[in-house]
Amino acid sequence: MTVSANHDQAALWNGGSGSAWVDNRATLDRMFAPLARFLVERATEMAQHVPSGRLLDVGCGTGGSTLALATALGERWQLTGADISAPMIAVARSRAAHVQAPVEFIGADAQTHDFPPACFDLIVSRLGVMFFDDPVAAFANLRASARPGAALHALVWRSPAENPFMTVAERTAAPMLAGLPSRVPGAPGQFGFTDRERVTQMLKASGWEDVTLTAVHFECTFAQADLREYASRLGPVGLALARLAPPDRAPIIDAIVNAYAPFVHDGEVRFTSACWHVAARAPGV
């Protein structure tokens, strides 16, 4: 694990948030499978022109997207997954060993990690780049690790208003949970990259070229049976609930689960993820 500049995020993802993601890995992998497929499609398109190379997955979490990319690209590509969360990296390594996938997983803060210079042909991220305390420095560090002409493809959330599913728990729990932190526009976190112009300028300021942000949508699902665990463990509400005694948690969790009712159909939770597809290119020779 490299020294992190993102101390608050390091504490979160090596603490309660990281544990919650590890425990809900299967649910989250299913939920975000359409996003992983999108990145696989971008990677396989590139592999038609660059049959072998090196790929970096930023904020790889428990490795679901990285392993899907490894399967799609085959042995001619070398893949590295990086994440600030030691618990999630441990799970990713275990998963890779189980399926004998030749993927390297490293515990690293991508803002400060000393990646090999001019190394990667492709850098991708599934919802993993919105958490830097200095995004320009982070993307400059990633650009330095990219070979001339290398591609960047990242998926980030658009606004909370465009992602009502993602704010159900907070909107429902706010009157019942004292001290629940409010969202700060542009701050590191889930919705840190909602402003299209701001993100474009950050990428350009960090040295990337041909920067585009394209609105994309993904139809996501997971089992209704997993909803209570998801609603009570993930995000700022999950962290706040963990501090309460079980008798105090239960009625709040009941209210949150009931609030998800409009998204539940035939034993599944279904919702639309509204994201930006962030694409850019490292300067050529």
Notes on the structure:
By secondary structure, the chain is an alpha/beta fold. The chain has one domain: 3-Layer(aba) Sandwich (Rossmann fold), CATH 3.40.50.150. Helix content is 41%, strand content 24%. The protein contains twelve helices and eight strands. It has helices at residues 7-13, 16-23, 25-31, 33-47, 64-73, 86-98, 135-145, 168-173, 196-205, 227-233, 235-242, 246-259; strands at 53-58, 77-83, 103-107, 120-126, 146-157, 209-223, 264-265, 268-281. Strands 1, 2, 3, 4, 5, 6, 7 and 8 form an eight-stranded mixed sheet that branches. A hairpin with a 2-residue loop joins β7 and β8 (268-281). α2 (16-23) runs parallel beside α6, α4 (33-47) packs parallel to α5 (64-73) and α10 packs across α12 (246-259). The two termini are 32 Å apart. 43% of the residues are buried.
CATH H level, superfamily name: Vaccinia Virus protein VP39
Please describe the biggest sheet, giving its number of strands, its sense, and whether it closes into a barrel: 8 strands, mixed
The number of distinct helices, counting runs of at least 4 residues, comes to: 12
Quaternary organisation: single chain
Distance between the termini: 32 Å
SSE succession: HHHHEHEHEEHEHHEHHHEE
**Number of β-strand runs:** 8
Number of structural domains: 1
User: What do we call the CATH topology?
Assistant: Rossmann fold
- At the first level of CATH, the class is Alpha Beta
Overall 3D shape: globular
Radius of gyration: 19 Å
The CATH architecture term is: 3-Layer(aba) Sandwich
Based on secondary structure, the structural category is: alpha/beta
**In percent, how much strand structure appears in the residues?**
15-25%
Mean pLDDT: 93
Helix content: 40-55%
Unreliable sequence segments: none
Keywords: Methyltransferase, S-adenosyl-L-methionine, Transferase
GO biological process, one term: methylation
Protein name: SAM-dependent methyltransferase
InterPro entries: Methyltransf_25, SAM-dependent_MTases_sf
